[in-house]
């Protein structure tokens, strides 16, 4: 076990900190919420994960000594403090208010705020400002038995010039994988809005939605792709027939295709797959279209999927869209992987639906979201068992992790297979990550990096997520507290 010296003042303050930490842990949203595991109407009995006793034996997250054996005491203390701060809702509310206020227009205030964020939340949730710092984080993760998903935090470009500059950064990120130990980098992460402006993605999404409703609509720019809609998909974003793309828009869309093509070729060269993140539903059809059209053209040198597209289980139509896309890929002989998440645009989606007077595309309850996620995971695990599937189960929910691990064991899936991977955000759900690692599964941490101003949208989503739909820091805080007490009690005595 690695331990480092800790300043005496810190040790003196720990007992009262532990008391506050324990109090906050008990009052916050549980990391293992109650589950409604009734299958969706589209699910078969075979596809449904059910809770059985072996689930608790699939991974062990109760042994804090074993879980945090590769984490230093100083790192544990800092992580505990940061997660505790992130769980205090008034503090988060105040921080978000400051960041969105006119105060940030003052350079001195902005500098003070950003420095405070940099030395706290940024250091905890991000891997560094540049590839050199990221390299150190990747190696530390690799030494602890975890892999890295490299995410240069770029999104929402506004011009072709911005998109081209962003593409160069993704090239450098992919190239950097060569300098790390083999297999230590599991994915290069891309947000399509970094290489295709959201305004164009919105236009493409609207036309794709209308084409799904009106089969007579001809889209001359459309390439071979997989289905991006299901019969249950909402179409309120496009209430009227959109105008066709202008020649300039078609040209810009072609440039976006070319950027994605160049990045695919680069990822093939470095032998690292490309994981494409999901965004909000107003532009998601365009993102799916670009992702799936690239998947029809490219695969890794070992014939495994090069493209992994993200499905957000908090959306009502997610299971049906996943099944439709996966079955179509099988028929077409397309190698494509999927990343399953719960979702990170809860407020945006509900506000938009409310403003339009329509039903939210998100499940009504957290239990429905949990059940949908587990249902999607079970479907993909069964597909892998059948010989044609690849999935990244990105979850912070311990119960979902246990259920999926148990299902994989029941299906006799190879734990170290590239077709089955787990993932958690850097700085979150470490207990689950190490528990899955100790059980023999491939686990990656999602590493966002880049200048702090560039990473702010990501950090704001994490602040919202940590106290909302996906709140899971409670368990980590409790286990960290338990391990710190175990390590430091002899010193106190």
Fold blueprint:
Blueprint: H1 8-27, H2 54-58, H3 64-67, H4 73-86, H5 89-99, H6 107-125, H7 131-143, E1 147-152, H8 160-176, E2 185-190, H9 198-213, H10 247-270, E3 274-276, H11 284-295, E4 307-312, H12 318-332, E5 337-341, H13 346-356, H14 366-385, E6 391-394, H15 398-410, E7 420-425, H16 430-438, E8 442-449, H17 452-467, H18 473-492
Q: Can I get a quick summary?
A:
With 493 residues, the protein is an alpha/beta fold. The protein has helices at residues 8-27, 54-58, 64-67, 73-86, 89-99, 107-125, 131-143, 160-176, 198-213, 247-270, 284-295, 318-332, 346-356, 366-385, 398-410, 430-438, 452-467, 473-492; strands at residues 147-152, 185-190, 274-276, 307-312, 337-341, 391-394, 420-425, 442-449.
Gap between N and C termini, in Å?
A: 21 Å
Count of distinct strands: 8
| Biggest sheet architecture | 8 strands, parallel, barrel
| Tally of individual helices | 18
The proportion of strand residues reads 5-15%
Sequence of secondary-structure elements: HHHHHHHEHEHHEHEHEHHEHEHEHH
Structural classification: alpha/beta
Walkthrough of the structure:
By secondary structure, this protein is an alpha/beta fold. Helix content is 53%, strand content 9%. The chain contains 18 helices and eight strands. Helix 15 (398-410) links the parallel strand 6 and strand 7 (420-425). The two termini are 21 Å apart. Mean pLDDT is 85; it is low at 1-47.
């Amino acid at each position: 076990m690695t331990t480092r010296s800790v300043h005496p003042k810190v040790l003196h303050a720990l007992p009262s900190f532990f008391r506050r930490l324990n109090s906050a842990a008990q009052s916050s949203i549980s990391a293992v919420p109650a589950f409604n595991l009734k299958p969706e109407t589209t699910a078969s009995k075979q596809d449904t994960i059910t809770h059985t006793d072996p689930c608790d034996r699939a991974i062990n997250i109760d042994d804090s000594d074993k879980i945090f054996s590769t984490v230093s005491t100083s790192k544990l203390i800092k992580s505990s403090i940061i997660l505790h701060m992130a769980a205090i809702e008034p503090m988060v509310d105040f921080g978000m208010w400051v960041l969105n206020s006119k105060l940030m227009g003052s350079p001195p205030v902005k500098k003070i705020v950003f420095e405070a964020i940099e030395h706290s939340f940024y250091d905890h949730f991000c891997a560094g400002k540049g590839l050199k710092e990221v390299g150190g984080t990747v190696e530390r993760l690799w030494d602890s038995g975890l892999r890295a998903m490299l995410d240069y935090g770029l999104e929402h470009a506004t011009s072709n010039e911005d998109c081209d500059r962003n593409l160069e950064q993704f090239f450098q990120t992919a190239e950097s994988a060569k300098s790390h130990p083999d297999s230590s980098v599991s994915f290069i992460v891309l947000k399509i809005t970094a290489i295709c402006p959201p305004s164009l993605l919105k236009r493409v999404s609207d036309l794709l939605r209308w084409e799904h409703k009106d089969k007579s609509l001809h889209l001359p720019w459309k390439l071979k792709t997989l289905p991006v809609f299901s019969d249950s998909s909402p179409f309120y974003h496009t209430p009227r027939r959109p105008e066709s793309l202008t020649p300039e828009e078609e040209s810009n869309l072609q440039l976006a295709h070319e950027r994605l093509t160049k990045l695919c070729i680069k990822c093939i060269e470095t032998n690292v797959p490309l994981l494409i993140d999901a965004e909000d539903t107003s532009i998601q059809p365009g993102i799916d279209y670009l992702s799936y059209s690239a998947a029809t053209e490219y695969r890794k040198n070992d014939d495994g999927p090069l493209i992994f597209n993200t499905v957000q289980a908090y959306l009502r139509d997610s299971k049906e869209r996943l099944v439709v896309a996966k079955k179509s890929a099988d028929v077409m002989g397309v190698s494509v992987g999927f990343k399953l998440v719960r979702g990170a645009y809860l407020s945006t989606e509900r506000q938009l639906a409310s403003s339009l007077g329509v039903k939210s595309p998100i499940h009504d309850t957290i239990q429905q979201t949990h059940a949908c996620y587990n249902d999607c995971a079970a479907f993909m695990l069964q597909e892998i068992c059948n010989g044609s599937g690849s999935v990244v189960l990105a979850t912070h929910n311990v119960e979902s992790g246990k259920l999926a691990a148990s299902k994989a064991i029941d299906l006799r899936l190879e734990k170290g297979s590239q077709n089955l991977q787990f993932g958690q955000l850097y700085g979150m759900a470490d207990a689950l990550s190490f528990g899955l690692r100790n059980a023999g599964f491939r686990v990656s941490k999602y590493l966002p990096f880049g200048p702090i101003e560039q990473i702010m949208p990501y950090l704001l989503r994490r602040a919202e997520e940590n106290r909302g739909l996906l709140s899971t820091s409670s368990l980590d805080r409790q286990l960290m507290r338990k391990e710190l007490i175990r390590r430091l009690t002899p010193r106190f005595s």
